[in-house]
Amino acid sequence: MRILRADEYRSMPWKNGGGVTTEIAVSPANAGLDDFDWRVSMARVELSGPFSQFAGIDRTLAVLEGEGIVLEIAGYPPTSINRATALFSFPADVQTSATLIGGPITDLNVMTRRSRVTHSVERLVISAPVEIRTGAGTTLILCLDGDVIVPAEPVRLGPFDALLSGSERTSLLVQPAHEATLFVIRIGDISGND
C-alpha cells in the first residue's frame, strides 16, 4: 500500500488548456494525458465551457466543492450534478460541455481506458469505523473531508490524502475522528475482476 499526500500531487494544464488538473494517481506511472490506462484527478472549474475529450476513455465525475454543474453530453439529456447527487459516469470521448450553477467548483474525475480496465466509484459518509473491501485490482481511498485512521498501516489521512492498495484482496478498517467523507475507487481488468 502507498500513502498519497495532497501536498505531493502533480498539477498540469487540462488537455484542452482551459484550466488546471491535479493528478492524484495514474497508471502506468508517469503516463501522460493520452496514454494512461487509468487516472484519478481533481480539477478546479472556474468557467463554463467544453470538457477535454479522451479517446477510448470512460469517466466518472463527482462534485467535491461548490454549487455544482450542468453537463451537456452529446446524445444525453442535460444532467445536473452537485455534492448531494449520485456520481455520474459517461464516455469521455463524446462532446461534453459544462455550465456552472453558482460559481466555481472542484470535481473528482476517475477515468479508465475501456479496452483495458473498468472502474467503480463509491462515496461514503462515515461517523463510525467501517471495513472497506479492496479488490483483486487497484483500490484508491480518497479522504475528502475529516480525518481517518487506517490502523493496519497505521496511518492518518487528512483532507484530500489517499491510500492506494495494490492487487491483494483484503479488507481495511477505517476509523474516522468524527464524520468524514471518503471516495472508494476500484479499478479492475476488463474481465470483470475488481
The CATH C-level class name of the largest domain: Mainly Beta
Number of separate domains: 2
Radius of gyration: 16 Å
The largest beta-sheet arranges its strands as 2-3-4-11-6-9
Averaged pLDDT, please? 90
Level-2 CATH architecture of the largest domain: Sandwich
Q: Choose one word for the global shape.
A: globular
One letter per element, helices H and strands E, the order comes to: EEEEEEEEEEEEEEEEEEE
How much β-strand is present in the residues?
A: over 45%
Kindly report the oligomeric state of this protein: single chain
Write structural notes for this entry.
This protein is an all-beta fold and 194 residues long. The protein contains no helices and 19 strands. It has strands at 2-4, 10-13, 20-27, 38-45, 49-50, 57-65, 69-73, 79-81, 88-91, 96-100, 105-113, 117-126, 130-134, 138-145, 148-150, 155-157, 162-165, 170-176, 180-189. The chain has a 6-stranded antiparallel β-sheet with strand order 2-3-4-11-6-9, with no helix packed on it. A hairpin with a 4-residue loop joins strand 15 (148-150) and strand 16. The radius of gyration is 16 Å and the shape is globular.
